Amino acid sequence: MATYDETVENRTTQEVTVPPKATRRVLSPSYKARILKEYDSCPQGQKGELLRREGLFSSQIT
C-alpha cells in the first residue's frame, strides 16, 4: 500500500489537460425569426416544450 506522501507526489506529477474554451452558439436571423414566430403561435403550456426541444432559454426569446 502506498504511503500518503507517495500518493500526494503521484497526484502532483500527473499531467493536467484543460479542454479548449467553448464557443458560443451563433443563431442565424432566419432561424431566430422562425423560432420566434413558432413561439408566439404556441399555446401557453407548449412554449416550454419548444424551448427545450430547441435547446433555448426564455431569455433568448424576449
Describe the protein's architecture and organization.
The chain has a domain at 26-62. With 62 residues, the protein is an all-alpha fold. The chain has 3 helices and no strands. The model has no long low-confidence stretch (mean pLDDT 83).
How would you briefly describe this protein structure?
This protein has 62 residues and is mostly helical. Helices cover 50% and strands 0% of the residues.
Helix content estimate: 40-55%
Return the average pLDDT rounded to an integer: 83
Span of the ends, CA to CA: 59 Å
Oligomerization state: single chain
Q: Helix/strand/pairing class, anyone?
A: mainly alpha
Order of helices and strands: HHH
Main sheet record: none
Strand content: under 5%
Radius of gyration: 23 Å
Number of continuous helical runs: 3
What gross morphology would you assign? elongated
Instruction: Give the low-confidence spans.
Output: none
The tally of beta strands, per DSSP, is 0
Secondary structure topology:
Elements: H1 4-13, H2 29-41, H3 47-54
Protein name: Transposase
Organism: Ferrithrix thermotolerans DSM 19514
Tags for this model:
3 helices; Transposase; 62 residues; mainly alpha
